[in-house]
């Protein structure tokens, strides 16, 4: 059995991070302390052997039992450039952007293959994010305390290696997407962002995800419990206040890293605490936007209770 070589694995793939470079080719990394570091995009979002499961007794020496799940993300990375180019070409509304959300929604046609590729690209960012990696080891450390680094990394890999594959199979190319453009204010990205992907993936009930793909474009994806299939894809142009609210969500879910192109965000205490957190309830802009998507029925308290029960069961 051939040994697996050590590699630099990107949880923020270069095919996406390249869009965050400013006029001088650099990206800014903002830490919870307020310190800012700057480098080329390919030097950010890297974990050494992050997608490698090492099972040998000596972590410094490879073994025939080591395995890499980096190929799980190859299809998404191959598709990202054309997906981002396509999303940038979508029809969107004209100013003013202070009017109601419903009046700013523009329906765009999409074929099955294109929509399925979009979903896989979005989910791939969630599946390999540091936030999701922490979820892969959270229960073990809650029950038994901190693990040695080698055991910790191996457990993370074992728990998340099939998350993307399972989630994509579970979603089956179905759901709703809103492409959000921000011409007045830049989006930010982080080592955590709004999403509720489970470690198992195949038990992802009522998936919700908002992924900033470029400083001017984010994509909101969901598959409600009940909804009309069409339209599957709409665009919306956000105003400054809405972009700020969506950036706040990144600060809530991030832990150690906020990335931005040229507009440094005002750091909130949700980020300075240095923990991956989630919204305590669904009374936030992202959830409100979900219910603005045509074909998503109004909020039903009975369905909310059922969804909460399913999510608690899937986290066991």
| Count of DSSP-assigned helices | 10
Shape: globular
The termini sit apart by 35 Å
**Which strand order do you get reading across the main beta sheet?**
7-12-8-11-10
Order of helices and strands: EHEEEEEHEHHHHEEEEEHEHHH
Described by strand count, sense and barrel closure, the largest sheet is: 5 strands, mixed
Mean pLDDT value? 87
Structural domain tally:
1
Helix content: 25-40%
| Structural class by SSE content | alpha+beta
Low-confidence regions: none
Overall number of strands: 13
Spatial extent as radius of gyration: 19 Å
Strand content bin: 15-25%
Write a structural description.
The protein has one domain. The strands form 4 sheets. It has a 5-stranded mixed beta sheet, covered by helices on one side. A 4-stranded antiparallel beta sheet has the order 3-2-13-9, covered by helices on one side. Strands 1-4 form a two-stranded antiparallel sheet. The chain has 316 residues and is of the alpha+beta class. The relative contact order is 0.16. The radius of gyration is 19 Å and the shape is globular. 34% of the residues lie in helices and 16% in strands. The two termini are 35 Å apart. The protein is built from 10 helices and 13 strands. The longest helix has 16 residues, at 112-127. Helix 2 (74-88) packs across helix 3 (112-127) and helix 4 packs across helix 5 (149-160). It has helices spanning 14-17, 74-88, 112-127, 130-144, 149-160, 163-171, 240-253, 269-272, 285-290, 301-314, and strands at residues 8-10, 27-30, 36-39, 46-48, 52-53, 67-68, 106-107, 176-181, 189-190, 208-214, 217-222, 233-237, 258-260. The mean pLDDT is 87.
